[in-house]
Every structure is written in structure tokens, then in C-alpha cells.
Structure to design on (1088 residues):
């Protein structure tokens, strides 16, 4: 095996399968951890695991010279280690006694969390090492090899989507092993196998490892604090029974029957009836709702005592739109309240099929009952496409956690809960129509105030109406109901609102003309010292005042209205509040901090520190080897900038295009795959372009910058004008818009490698690592920047990165 | 031959009766849901005036100094003033209710995991709830969610009539065995769905409902005496900082109040002035 091996196309094929496996593994692990643990945890773990990719570059920079003489053997070793590491590391990680909620209290738990991350890091390290090893060894073929990498990555996203339907989430990671086996098999073909005992033995052993892993499966351990674990325990003691289970990219659905499940949807304590028999509906291991096991609205009497019933008492709506309804309870409510036509919009087709077929006899038939129409569509897309008018628009998606889109988009945007969305919903209201949302109360208020802020912002930005005249807020001891009216609230409506709220034992927090000093709370919650009203009332009045800005700036949480440019309703974090939390809670300050944003910050900081150290490591240990090269700074700058710029632009394109395509899961996979496939085509095309590497860098960076500026100016209005067309037209248009910029993305990395090749190629593995680290670090940074400044700023930064890369390439001699 | 057949019939009859007895024993003692915790001790007179109620409370010297430190800094130091509650926190050996792997942390003022997704509550929260409920000796107290058993043990220091329900079988059994071992004979326990309360012993003066997401089960409202109080911690056990106090008036109306054991003003002083 000594002596340089000539390039064989089988190397590219092997890279292709390996890349499919790496991306698919990333997505499957995220899916698995979202169910067995939490979305935030899943995000943290996978971000750290992807460091393995960057670390592979560091490893190669240190050891490539020693490994290259036995390229064939060593790459087989890396591939086999990748194959074995997938089940071994996942099983080991799942068996760790990690208590994710106790981590913040315990140093030993923190060490376990670090161990968990390291175990997940290992497979990606070996996968990245194999890819980087082949690219470095055959660096003259980098356009073809990088194209294979990109095409494989694109295919990996789509492949993962398909695989997710096959098994429960906890079992998914082993499904990539056949792909890794194909990578091993095709790689062995770069040499003739006849007489080669070692490769043949390796293929056989790998095959048996794959079969054994697929049959044995992985441990099914769910975090004990999740509802799924609680139901599994009840099942073990015969107090519950699993009725149905579905897996898919929008979330794992579990349906349980248990006499100890009592879901009352915020019903007040004056309720004189018990909730009907019900099934528990879980999505990704958390309660998403209850399915009433009834066939008659009369048996859903408990709904009469809920805050959700209040708008029905005021508007007596005939045509009702329920957005994001998962289990049918709000349909029962609408029927009880006399609605004639009920339109339900739900994104998740599996949920709809489950209700309409397998659970039909268990209450699911409510979706097919008279007067009910179920539309499978993204709620935001529906609001923009539909021209129907409704008397009541009920945002059911605000009442329960993780319904519908809870799959791949755990820590993410919500385009239904934005100012623009509410403005669009208001256009769908009939003359005296209402928009209504009910949401649990927090102490101090957070979600409810943000909801009210969003409603008020929709009015003030998109109409000439006085926001103060269109808002109604009330609450019981558990939840607040917020309503936005199409017409100004007159004295009659105001009077009925107060009467009906009193009947429901709800406290009135706001109506036009309310007098703060006359408020008397039935269900007492905290408020300003010495005042009879609550913080909710205080907050709404403050938002309606001339100086609402000081309220938003001074509140403990971010309750500013989310917009399409920063659609993160569930982001409540404010840096400025940490001092107050420290002052009140001392060393338990983290109990009050919104973990979502903090996890992003922790992820970014640990990645940045690790990346910095690992990038510098090769330079420190092999200083003599690299000292001769004058390309260190240009390499560091160029590959950092293209890695960062690519991630900034890719993530922003992903978010904004899925907004217009609907079905966030399918759209995300399709857009991501399109970008990667088109980039792969761009990379491959470079072999046929008779231009120097420097010229290609200049053309590509200028093209990307100009195309993205053009995108900023025309994409949104163009896509908005297409919202009336069907899904296929919108998707094809999106691809056409993505093709040019993605094509040029694929030029940058290979052209940079070819620059390095001209000066000996010593820095190629290091460049691979720098690019990997930059991509991985930029991912959480992009989300943090989008949350704080909005998508347009992130795109501008991406443009600056590519412009910077272009300048670096031009100055690179 | 005829005598032999008669003998065989008699034998069969006897064996059948024995089998029925064995089966009956099996069905009643093994298959039926256990209602354990009915311990053979004489219980204090439930109608006696509070200041005359006496009952045996176990005492432990082990790690008493750590309990004293916890009480000084984490209970009295955090504002608890009810002497009976302070005394209760001083005497109940929290380390006995904590898993072996958590023994070192037993007297930190933190919640601790006990398995099955449950926690042993932060001592300050336990004391806060007990103080809020104003438990008198002689009060009948119902706890929904025995968990580790620690909270009920604290309550049993304040009144001899403590009833506790747990739905997770391993936890319920473990707590009951622990009460027996430690001498907490005044606590009655049951394995059941706490949503339905414990009708046989209703009505109750005080009710504590854990792990209920703040939701008040209607049967518990029925089982609460007029004038009685219910306490429901709201939120994750690791982040619980809100308690719901539910009061049933003499007329049967329900009043709720959310309390923050740790005061927190969500606005800055400047913004508060301007608004």
C-alpha cells in the first residue's frame, strides 16, 4: 500500500456516501435527543458534536504527513472507527446517569454533561477526518471531491427526512450505518480487492457490525422529567396504555390512555363538571393536548368553564378559524357554542391522519364531523392565501406546547406569532370579528404581555385604528385570554365582556376605559406595591402609554412584539435583567433566566474557545513545518470568512424561504438540500472553467455579494406576490432564486484549496479545519444575531464576510 | 369401589376448598391494589382542641448540626418565623429521605432528584408552604404526591393527621417503608391517583398538591373544608418560585392567590416611576 495512489472516482463516491451519513447522523441525533431529552439540549449537544468536524482538520494538520504513506489503510481505519463509534458512543451517552435539570446545581452532573458531549463528538471526528483526509490527499481533485461532499450533504438532509419515518426517535442513529458501510465498500474499490485480505476482512466485519446494530437497536431512555417517561412508568404499573405512536420529522407522536390523565384546558375552579374521558396526546415526549373520547358536544361541558369560551360568549361566531388545533378540544368548544362552520388549520399531516383514521372511534372523528373542515397547511401561509372571512380566529397554537411543528424546529422562529401575522389575521375578520388567544400565566408576566404587545403593534403599524380601543384582556387563576377586535370595543361589548368574565370567575385586566384604582382581583396575582391591580394590567397600560419604550426597556423579560424580521416569540431573554435576578435570587439566579438564549450563548462561547484553541494547536506543535509557509494568515482569514459567511447566509435563507413555502420541516430540508446541491454543481463546474483560482475567487465573491444585496431588495416582495400560488410553483421559484448564489458558494472553498496547492499544500488540512470550525461556530452566532437584530442584519454580515474573503483572495499572493 | 369413589370425591372437595382459600388469599393480598399505611397505632383524638393534641414524633441526633445550619441560614435566614415550622425543619432528618448518591447534598437548600422524574423539595419552599398554610395541631392535612416522603414527615411534626397519596408505585412503597422504619406512624399513605383525593378521610383542613401544573382538581375542592386552604407549587421543581394559595370561604367560594416566596420586582425603579 506504499507509494502514491492515483485518483479514482470511487473516492468521490465514497465521500458522497460518507457525507450523506454525516449530515443524516446530525439530523437523526437531533431528532432522537429532542424526544429523549429536550430541543435545547439537542441543540447544545449537536453543536458541540460538530466540533468534531473542525477538530478533524486539526488532527490532519498535525499528523497528515505521517499518515499519507498508508493512505488506503488509514482511511479504512477512520471509516471503520466512524462506523463503530455511531452505536458505541450513542449507547454510552444514553447510559450515563445524566440529570439534565439538575446540571445547574451539581458539578458532577456538569462533568457528565461534558462527557455526553465528548461521546457525541467522536463519530463526527472520525467522519470529518475521513473526508478531510481524502480531500487533502487528492487535493488536485478538490472540485470533484468537494462537489461530492456538498451533494452528499444535500442528499443527507433529504435522506434523514425519509429515515425519520421508519423508527422511533431513540432508535434513529443506527440507520446511518448502512450508509457508512457503503462508504467503506466504495472506498475499497479504489484498489483491486483480489488478494487483499485485510480490506475483505474489514468489509465482512463491518457488514456484521451493521446487521448486529440494526437488530439490537439502541437503549430507549427518556429523560425522567418528561411526560413520556411518566406515562411509561404508569404503563409499567398498568395504570396507562400506549394507544398509538407515530414518528416523523414534525415530531414523534405518542397517544396514551390512562385514567390518571386529567386535562382541563385552564378551566376555572368553579367548574361543576369533570373533564370527559380523554387520551393524552404527546409530541416529542411532552403533553400537546387531550383528545376527548366523546362523540357528542354535550359531553365537552368542561369547555364552558375555560377562558377560551369567553370570545364565543361575546361574538357568538358562526364561522370560526382555529389555527394550530392538535387534538380537537377547541372544535368541541366551537360546536358547543353553536358555530356552524369550523375551519381547522394544522401543519402536521400525520396528526390529521391519526385523528381521522386510527383514533376515529376514540374521539378523532371530531375532525370529520358536520361543519368541520380540516386544512393541512402552515397557519401563516393559510392566513395569507385565504380570502375567507371569519367571526372568530382562535390561535390554538398558543395553548399547548410543541404541536404540529415541534420536530426539527425546536429552538426556532414562529411566523404565526408576529406582528405581520396578526395584521394578516385581522384582515380575515368579519366586521365584528375577534382574534383570541389563551395562554398560561407566568410570574412575573411574560408571554401574556408579549402577546398583548404583538396585538397592539399589529394595530398601530398596519392600521389607522387606535390600539387602545380594540383590546380585551382577562384571566382566571391559570391563564390569560387576550382578544383583538376588528371594530372598536363599544360600551355594549365592554359591558358584556365584564359580565361574562365575572361569570367565568375571571379578572378583567384591560378593556377600553378601565379604571385602574377600581380593580378588585378575585384571583390575586402580583402587582406593583400598594396597587390593587396586577402586573398584567400595569404592563398593558404601560404599552399603551406614550412612553412604552421605557416599559419595554425596564421589564425583566423581552416582551417586545416579534416581527417577521425577528420571529422569535419564545425569546424572552434580556442581558440587562441578570443583575436583578442575581440581586433577588442570589446563586439561584438561573432559575429565572430564559434557558433558550442562554444555551445559545453557552454553545457559542464553548465552540469559539474550543475552535480557537484547536486552530492554534497545529501551529504551536508543528511550528517548523508551518513556519515556511506565508499562507497562514490568508488561510485563516479566507477560510474563516467563507465558513462564517456561508452559515450566516444559509441559515437566513433557510428561515426566510420556509416562511413562504410553508410546512417548515419539508421546506427546511428542501431548501438546505437545494443550496448544497447547487453549491456542489458550482464546485464541480470549476474543472471546466479556464480561470485561475484568484480570478474565480474574485468573481464568486462579487457575485455572491451582489446577488445577496439584490435578494435583500426584491426577494421578500417577489415571494410575497407568489403566496397565492400553489406549493410547487413557490418551491420552483425558490429554487430558481437560490441557484445563482448557491452556484457561486461552491466556487470559494475549492478555489482557496487550489491557492494552497500552488504553494505546496501543507496548509490544506488546516484550512479544512478552519472552515469547519467557522461553520460550526457561526451557526449559534447567526441565531443569536437574528434574535437580537433581525435576519436582514445577519445577511449583511454574511455579505461582508464574502466581500472580505474576496479581498483576502485578491491580496493573497 | 363405591367407597373408593366416595373417598375420592371427598378428597377432591377438600382440595377444591383449599384451592379456593388459597386463590382468595392470593387475589385479595396480591392482585388487589394495596391500601397500605394503615398502621396499628392509636391515633390522637381528632376532635380535641389543638393545644391539647399530643402525639409521638421521632427524633434523630444524626446530622443534627447540619440541620441546625440549614435552619439558621435557609429557613430563619430566609424569613420564616413560625416557630412550629422552624422546629419541624430542625427535627426531620432530610438525609433519610434522599437517595444514597445525594447524601452529601442532603442539607443544602436545594431541590434534589429522587428518580422517576420527581424531586425532594427545596427545604425553604417546604417551610414556606407549611407557614403559609398555618397548620394547627389536630388539622387534617392531605398531601397529593408523597414523592420522597420528606414533606409529609415535616407536616406530621405540625399535626398528627397527615394523609399522603402517591401514584408512582416504587416511590409510594419506598416512602411508606421509610415512615415505618423511622417511626412516623401518624402518616397514612395510599397508592392511587391523587386527583380524586381521599374521600374516606375528607374533609380536610389543608391540602397540598404537588406536580399539578397549578391546576386545582375539582374533587379536592369538594374535600376541602369551608375555611380550608390549599397550596399548589407552580412550575418545574427546579425552578418553582410561585405558590398558589387556594382558599375555600365559608360560603364555598374559591379564592386564589399567587405568592412569590422570593420577592422580585420585574421593573427597574426608573421605569416604574415613569409608568
Amino acid at each position: 500500500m506504499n507509494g502514491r495512489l492515483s485518483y479514482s472516482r470511487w473516492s468521490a463516491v465514497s465521500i458522497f456516501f460518507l457525507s450523506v451519513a454525516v449530515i443524516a447522523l446530525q439530523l437523526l441525533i437531533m431528532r432522537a435527543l429532542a424526544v429523549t431529552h429536550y430541543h435545547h439540549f439537542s441543540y447544545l449537544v449537536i453543536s458541540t458534536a460538530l466540533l468534531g468536524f473542525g477538530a478533524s482538520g486539526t488532527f490532519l494538520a498535525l499528523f497528515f504527513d505521517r499518515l499519507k504513506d498508508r493512505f488506503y489503510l488509514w482511511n479504512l481505519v477512520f471509516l471503520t472507527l466512524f462506523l463503530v463509534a455511531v452505536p458505541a458512543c450513542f449507547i454510552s451517552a444514553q447510559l450515563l446517569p445524566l440529570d439534565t435539570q439538575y446540571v445547574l446545581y451539581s458539578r458532577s452532573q456538569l462533568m457528565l454533561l461534558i462527557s455526553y458531549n465528548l461521546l457525541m463528538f467522536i463519530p463526527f471526528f472520525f467522519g470529518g477526518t475521513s473526508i478531510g483526509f481524502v480531500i487533502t490527499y487528492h487535493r488536485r481533485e478538490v472540485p470533484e471531491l468537494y462537489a461530492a461532499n456538498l451533494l452528499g450533504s444535500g442528499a443527507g438532509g433529504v435522506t434523514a427526512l425519509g429515515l425519520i419515518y421508519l423508527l422511533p426517535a431513540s432508535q434513529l442513529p443506527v440507520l446511518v450505518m448502512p450508509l457508512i458501510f457503503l462508504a467503506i465498500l466504495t472506498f475499497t474499490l479504489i484498489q483491486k480487492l483480489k488478494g487483499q485480505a485485510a480490506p475483505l476482512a474489514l468489509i465482512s466485519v463491518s457488514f456484521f457490525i451493521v446487521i448486529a446494530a440494526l437488530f439490537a437497536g439502541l437503549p430507549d431512555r427518556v429523560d425522567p422529567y418528561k411526560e413520556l417517561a411518566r406515562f411509561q412508568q404508569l404503563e409499567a404499573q398498568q395504570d396507562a396504555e400506549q394507544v398509538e405512536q407515530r414518528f416523523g420529522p414534525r415530531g414523534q407522536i405518542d397517544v396514551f390512555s390512562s385514567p390518571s390523565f386529567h386535562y382541563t384546558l385552564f378551566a376555572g375552579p368553579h367548574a361543576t363538571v369533570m373533564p370527559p374521558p380523554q387520551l393524552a396526546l404527546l409530541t416529542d415526549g411532552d403533553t400537546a393536548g387531550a383528545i376527548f373520547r366523546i362523540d357528542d358536544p354535550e359531553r365537552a361541558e368542561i369547555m364552558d368553564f375555560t377562558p377560551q369560551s369567553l370570545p364565543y360568549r361575546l361574538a357568538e361566531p358562526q364561522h370560526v378559524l382555529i389555527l394550530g388545533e392538535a387534538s380537537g378540544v377547541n372544535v368541541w368548544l366551537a360546536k358547543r357554542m353553536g358555530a356552524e362552520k369550523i375551519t381547522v388549520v394544522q401543519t402536521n399531516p400525520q396528526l390529521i391522519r391519526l385523528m381521522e383514521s386510527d383514533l376515529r372511534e376514540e374521539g378523532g372523528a371530531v375532525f370529520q364531523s358536520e361543519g368541520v373542515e380540516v386544512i393541512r397547511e402552515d397557519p401563516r401561509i393559510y392566513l395569507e392565501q385565504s380570502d375567507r372571512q371569519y367571526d372568530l380566529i382562535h390561535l390554538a397554537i398558543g395553548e399547548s406546547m410543541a404541536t404540529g411543528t415541534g420536530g426539527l424546529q425546536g429552538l426556532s422562529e414562529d411566523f404565526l406569532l408576529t406582528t405581520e401575522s396578526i395584521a394578516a389575521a385581522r384582515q380575515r375578520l368579519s366586521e365584528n370579528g375577534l382574534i383570541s388567544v389563551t395562554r398560561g400565566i407566568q410570574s412575573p408576566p411574560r408571554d401574556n404581555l408579549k402577546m398583548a404587545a404583538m396585538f397592539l403593534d399589529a394595530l398601530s403599524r398596519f392600521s389607522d385604528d387606535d390600539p387602545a380601543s380594540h383590546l380585551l384582556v382577562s384571566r382566571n387563576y391559570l391563564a390569560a385570554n387576550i382578544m383583538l377586535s376588528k371594530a372598536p370595543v363599544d360600551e355594549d361589548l365592554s359591558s358584556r365582556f365584564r359580565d361574562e368574565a365575572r361569570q367565568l370567575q375571571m379578572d378583567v385586566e384591560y378593556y377600553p376605559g378601565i379604571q385602574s384604582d377600581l380593580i378588585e382581583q378575585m384571583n390575586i396575582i402580583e402587582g406593583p406595591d400598594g396597587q390593587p391591580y396586577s402586573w398584567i394590567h400595569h404592563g398593558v397600560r404601560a404599552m399603551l402609554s406614550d412612553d412604552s419604550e421605557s416599559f419595554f426597556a425596564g421589564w425583566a423579560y423581552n416582551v417586545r412584539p416579534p416581527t417577521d424580521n425577528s420571529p422569535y416569540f419564545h425569546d424572552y431573554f434580556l442581558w440587562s435583567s441578570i443583575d436583578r435576578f442575581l440581586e433577588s435570587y442570589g446563586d439561584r439566579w438561573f432559575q429565572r433566566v430564559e434557558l433558550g438564549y442562554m444555551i445559545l450563548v453557552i454553545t457559542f462561547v464553548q465552540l469559539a474557545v474550543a475552535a480557537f484553541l484547536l486552530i492554534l494547536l497545529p501551529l504551536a506543535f508543528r511550528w517548523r513545518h508551518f513556519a515556511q509557509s506565508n499562507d497562514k494568515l490568508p488561510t485563516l482569514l479566507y477560510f474563516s470568512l467563507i465558513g462564517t459567511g456561508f452559515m450566516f447566509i444559509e441559515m437566513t435563507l433557510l428561515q426566510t424561504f420556509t416562511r413562504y413555502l410553508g410546512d417548515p420541516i419539508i421546506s427546511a430540508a428542501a431548501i438546505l438540500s437545494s443550496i448544497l446541491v447547487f453549491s456542489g454543481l458550482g464546485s464541480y463546474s470549476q474543472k471546466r472553467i479556464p480561470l485561475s483560482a484568484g480570478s474565480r475567487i474574485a468573481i464568486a465573491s462579487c457575485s455572491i455579494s451582489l446577488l445577496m444585496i439584490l435578494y435583500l431588495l426584491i426577494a421578500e416582495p417577489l415571494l410575497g406576490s407568489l403566496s397565492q400560488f400553489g406549493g410547487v410553483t413557490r418551491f420552483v421559484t425558490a429554487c430558481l432564486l437560490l441557484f445563482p448564489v448557491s452556484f457561486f458558494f461552491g466556487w470559494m472553498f475549492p478555489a482557496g484549496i487550489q491557492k494552497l496547492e500552488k504553494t505546496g499544500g501543507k496548509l490544506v488540512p488546516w484550512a479544512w479545519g478552519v472552515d469547519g470550525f467557522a461553520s460550526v461556530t457561526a451557526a449559534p452566532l447567526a441565531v443569536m444575531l437574528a434574535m437580537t437584530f433581525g435576519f436582514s442584519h445577519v445577511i449583511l454580515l454574511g455579505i461582508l464576510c464574502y466581500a472580505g474573503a474576496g479581498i483576502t483572495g485578491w491580496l493573497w499572493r | 369401589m363405591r367407597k373408593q369413589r366416595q373417598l375420592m370425591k371427598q378428597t377432591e372437595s377438600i382440595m377444591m376448598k383449599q384451592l379456593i382459600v388459597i386463590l382468595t388469599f392470593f387475589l385479595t393480598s396480591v392482585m388487589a391494589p394495596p391500601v397500605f399505611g394503615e398502621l396499628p397505632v392509636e391515633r390522637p383524638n381528632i376532635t380535641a382542641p389543638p393545644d391539647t393534641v399530643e402525639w409521638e414524633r421521632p427524633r434523630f441526633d444524626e446530622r443534627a448540626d447540619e440541620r441546625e445550619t440549614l435552619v439558621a441560614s435557609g429557613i430563619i435566614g430566609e424569613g420564616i418565623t413560625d416557630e412550629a415550622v422552624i422546629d419541624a425543619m430542625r427535627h426531620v432528618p432530610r438525609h433519610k429521605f434522599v437517595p444514597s448518591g445525594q447524601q452529601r447534598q442532603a442539607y443544602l437548600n436545594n431541590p434534589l432528584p429522587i428518580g422517576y422524574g420527581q424531586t425532594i423539595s427545596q427545604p425553604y419552599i417546604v417551610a414556606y408552604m407549611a407557614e403559609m398554610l398555618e397548620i394547627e395541631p389536630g388539622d387534617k392535612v392531605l398531601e397529593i404526591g408523597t414523592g420522597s416522603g420528606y414533606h409529609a414527615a415535616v407536616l406530621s411534626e405540625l399535626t398528627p393527621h397527615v394523609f399522603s397519596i402517591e401514584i408512582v408505585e416504587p416511590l409510594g412503597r419506598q416512602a411508606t417503608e421509610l415512615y415505618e422504619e423511622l417511626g412516623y406512624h401518624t402518616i397514612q399513605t395510599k397508592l392511587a391517583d391523587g386527583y380524586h383525593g381521599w374521600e374516606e378521610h375528607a374533609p380536610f383542613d389543608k391540602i397540598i398538591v404537588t406536580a399539578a401544573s397549578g391546576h386545582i382538581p375539582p374533587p379536592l375542592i369538594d374535600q376541602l373544608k369551608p375555611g380550608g386552604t390549599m397550596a399548589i407549587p407552580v412550575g418545574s421543581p427546579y425552578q418553582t418560585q410561585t405558590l398558589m394559595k387556594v382558599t375555600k370561604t365559608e360560603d364555598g367560594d374559591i379564592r386564589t392567590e399567587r405568592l412569590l416566596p422570593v420577592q422580585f420586582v420585574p421593573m427597574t425603579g426608573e421605569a416604574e416611576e415613569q409608568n
Summary: Strands of chain B lie at 112-115, 118-120, 140-144, 161-166, 187-191, 204-209, 224-234, 242-248, 254-259. The longest helix of chain B spans residues 2-31. DSSP finds eight helices and nine strands in chain B.
